[in-house]
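Field log, afternoon session.

UNIT: design team B
ACTIVITY: writing a sequence onto a fixed backbone
BACKBONE:
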């Protein structure tokens, strides 16, 4: 069969599709599904963010992955192909939670992980006997997974960091998260038990990808300290540079931080989420202690590792002062990058259930009419400030010219990796905002 795998792009603040010349990181999901596809099929992948879709191309089957932020676009793509009598299979985090909704747009929905489902789906499709849904038990252990089909990538569509040969290639070394943060979809989809891949499988995959720059997609790269040290030892022999995600408790393991540096880590994404203890408790992330954030950041900087902070704004008592104070804290700590997310009620999460019970959700099916970045999703009766207004305030403050100069002076090689992203963010905010940026 001729198969096309598509990763949709979301909509922007003006409700227009996000289309750019080059993206930061390729989508791992479709690369992995391509790796699961048996030989004998003609398979192609398409990243909707950087490539155009030819709906009239002669193909037999389309596979579409979807997060909640891209669900609206995913359904539009599915509908267009079905109008042309092309069979459509959908999978991913969003449709695994909203199965009946997805079945209105797809012939088949794969629920959860596709390791054991995909080959059976293709076999049934070849025989003209597709079922409406497929779901199998999570794979455990994660040994001998097929390698993602990096050879199908158009690498010219992805940026290269300064002095690096390859784009940033995504690699997964583990699945699952033991925490149950109220807003998060990870433990629901991947499970609350962490399942690790053999280290040899991981290093072989990196070597096979021919990448010298990697992003490890694990939700917490340092979840198992002993295993992390073993993995770092193996990575140090590959001479790569990489980014990964860690939790705020990593300051307890200075030996691991040093191992990250030695093995090539130049930036970590940390879910700080808030500097307010009540907010953290409300979302079941009370293990985050804001008073320890400076210790972690200082430890990382001492080891020449950039910090990319994840912040959520839009809690019931958040206001412009909260947004300003949060951004100022990050600036004072000379954090290299930060994302300011609106508090977003994803379907099938406890946050969605709580806000729905409180009656503060503006639209219970917001993903069908807007992207998570478009419009407001929450309106508190006693708080006039919307999550969007607060994230905008924090973003403008953090990515102001004055902030960039303060955070990056004096400039050195490890800061140089993230400075271009700050400049791009400053230009975007300046272009789309009527507020003066100092």
């Amino acid at each position: 069969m001729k198969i096309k795998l598509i990763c949709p792009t979301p909509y922007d603040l003006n409700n227009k599709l996000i289309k750019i010349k080059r993206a930061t990181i390729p989508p791992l999901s479709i690369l992995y599904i391509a790796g699961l596809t048996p030989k004998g099929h003609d398979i192609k992948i398409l990243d909707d963010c950087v490539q155009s879709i030819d709906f009239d191309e002669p193909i037999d089957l389309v596979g579409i992955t979807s997060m909640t932020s891209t669900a609206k676009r995913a359904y539009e793509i599915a509908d267009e192909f079905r109008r042309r009598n092309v069979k459509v299979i959908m999978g991913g985090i969003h449709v695994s939670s909203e199965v009946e909704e997805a079945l209105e747009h797809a012939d088949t929905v794969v629920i959860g992980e596709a390791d054991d489902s995909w080959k059976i789906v293709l076999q049934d499709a070849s025989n003209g006997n597709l079922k409406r849904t497929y779901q199998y038990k999570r794979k455990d252990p994660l040994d001998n997974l097929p390698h993602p089909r990096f050879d199908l990538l158009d690498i010219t569509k992805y940026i290269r960091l300064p002095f690096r040969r390859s784009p940033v290639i995504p690699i997964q070394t583990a699945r699952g998260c033991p925490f149950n943060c109220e807003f998060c979809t990870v433990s629901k989809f991947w499970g609350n038990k962490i399942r690790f891949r053999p280290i040899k499988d991981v290093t072989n995959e990196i070597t096979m990808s021919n990448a010298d720059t990697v992003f490890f997609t694990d939700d917490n790269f340092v979840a198992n300290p002993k295993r992390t040290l073993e993995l770092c030892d193996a990575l140090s022999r590959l001479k790569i540079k990489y980014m990964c995600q860690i939790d705020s408790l990593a300051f307890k393991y200075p030996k691991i931080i040093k191992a990250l540096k030695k093995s090539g880590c130049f930036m970590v994404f940390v879910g700080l989420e808030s500097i307010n203890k009540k907010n953290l408790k409300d979302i079941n992330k009370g293990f985050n202690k804001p008073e320890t954030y400076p210790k972690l950041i200082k430890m990382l900087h001492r080891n020449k590792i950039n910090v990319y902070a994840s912040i959520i704004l839009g809690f019931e008592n958040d206001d412009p002062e909260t947004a300003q104070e949060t951004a100022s804290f990050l600036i004072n700590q000379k954090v290299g990058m930060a994302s300011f997310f609106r508090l977003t009620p994803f379907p099938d999460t406890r946050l969605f259930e709580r806000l729905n019970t409180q009656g503060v959700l503006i639209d219970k099916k917001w993903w069908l009419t807007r992207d998570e970045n478009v419009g407001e999703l929450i309106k508190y009766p006693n708080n006039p400030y919307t999550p969007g207004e607060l994230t905008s305030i924090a973003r403008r403050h953090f990515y102001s010219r004055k902030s960039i100069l303060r955070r990056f002076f004096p400039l050195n090689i490890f800061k140089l990796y993230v400075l271009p992203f700050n400049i791009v963010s400053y230009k975007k905010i300046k272009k789309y905002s009527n507020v003066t940026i100092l």
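LOG NOTE: The first helix runs from residue 28 to 36.
NEXT ACTIVITY: expression trials, pending approval
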